[in-house]
Amino acid sequence: KGREIVLVCLALFSVATSLTLALQTGPYLSRAILQADRLVQCSYKHSSGLFPGELLWESANTIESLSSLMIAVNSTKWVNIIQNTYDKTGPIVDKCYDDHQWWLLAWIRVYELTKDIKYLERAAFLFDNTSTGAWTNQCGGGVLWCPEPP
Predict the structure, then answer these.
(1) Distance from first CA to last CA of the chain, Å, rounded?
(2) Is 9 helix (H, G, I), strand (E, B) or coil?
């Protein structure tokens, strides 16, 4: 089961890398930067490290997207936002394993941007937590989406 999760992560990473390359060569780069600036200025809540109009897993996707954009433009413009999110959220943001996996992908992307091992360590913690805690034999086996209400 761990191998399948790793393969899914690699597939998603491949898609993200393709999107990054398209963004680098496409005509929409300045628009993406402008929208990211607006998103951070208007929607980010420093006290929680999240984007309050989003569900937790959506904030993970936003952090991953900001990281991808910074990689595409070779910038560290919003690294302080990501660092604040890391500091404020902790490794487990809720009780839903699917949300954990979205955060795992975000932290892998942040590691790719910053090369700071703490982000990769958080991703590994989330992977281990899901691998050991989420597996069930219900319905023939699989990973529980959300064993308890968030």
Answers:
(1) 24
(2) helix
Closest to 88 in 3D by CA, of 111, 67, 69, 63: 63
Which pair of structure tokens corresponds to residue 73?
A: 């433009």
Among 138, 111, 137, 113, which Cα is nearest to 125's?
111
**Average confidence (pLDDT) over 94-115:** 93
pLDDT tens-digit profile of 25-70? 566 777 888 889 999 999 999 999 999 888 889 999 999 999 999 9
The pTM of the full predicted model, rounded to 2 decimals, is 0.79
Nearest to 134 by CA among 124, 148, 118: 148
Element of type H or E holding 6: helix 2-25
d(CA 7, CA 10): 5
Residue environment code for 29-41, b if the CB has 16+ CB neighbours within 10 A, otherwise e: eeebbeebeebbe
Q: How many angstroms separate the CA atoms of 39 and 7, rounded?
A: 31
